[in-house]
Amino acid sequence: QVQLVESGGGLVQAGGSLRLSCAASRSIFSINVMGWYRQAPGKQREFVARITSGGSTNYGDSVKGRFTISRDNTKNTVYLQMNSLKPEDTAVYYCKTTIRTADYWGQGTQVTVTS
What does the radius of gyration of the chain's CA atoms come to, in whole angstroms? Predict the structure, then answer.
């Protein structure tokens, strides 16, 4: 089991940056994949980015080149650096991992980008 707590969301103007954090309640050293998802009002939750224990990363098409995912196993934390933010990035951002066959989600953090 693991609890995930996101932080770092807020209100930012278009073109600005934010860094989200996802703190885990246990060591993430042995957790293979940690990821970020987002859900905008009236839309389905969508994949944003993932990172493996080896440091391999994948990104959703809409954020490639603007967002960067990283992990610090010593702090049990995964980060999402978001640059060149757009109003369409407005959403609740969730951290997620899977341990064995169980999915674990954080409570989410709101990101609002104004034009």
Answer: 13
